[in-house]
Amino acid sequence: MSDTDRHQDQSPATAAAPGTKPSFELGTGPGRVLVWFYGVFTVAAASRSVVEVIRGFDRAPLAYSLSAVAAVVYGFITYSLVRGGEKARRAALVCCAAELLGVLVVGAWTLAEPSAFPDSTVWSDFGMGYLFIPVILPVTGMVWLRRAKRA
């Protein structure tokens, strides 16, 4: 996909002049680190979900379903960061907020009612099994995406 194709969804106010590169790309600089982390978490959550479903979905269907949801959210954010453009930035911002809400709700739920989660999810205990990266990543993503809007 060329830079021209990638940025056609930008509004006239934020689009670069024809023939010039936009002043800010979502997946550049520190954004590359976000793309890398979200890519790794997409693969990790999807792999975990597939393995859990194959090994016995009936053992902890809620936990395994939430791992699959996490994989989809991570994948969409990764795609949006790589794609770039104003629509992708807004979509990624909404997904980061939804991800943070999911991590906080599932994290609190796993602490309040551990019996509901016989097996852990990516977001269990606020992402403790993943060094709390699942709770740090969406906050970092939202900060980066808000910065991208100002650039």
From TrEMBL:
Q: Which residue ranges does the record annotate as region Disordered?
A: 1-24
Keywords for this protein: Membrane, Transmembrane, Transmembrane helix
TM ranges = 33-51, 63-82, 91-112, 127-145
Top-level taxon of the source organism? Bacteria
What this protein is called in its record is: Integral membrane protein
- Organism equals Streptomyces microflavus (Streptomyces lipmanii)
The beginning of the lineage is:
Bacteria, Bacillati, Actinomycetota, Actinomycetes, Kitasatosporales
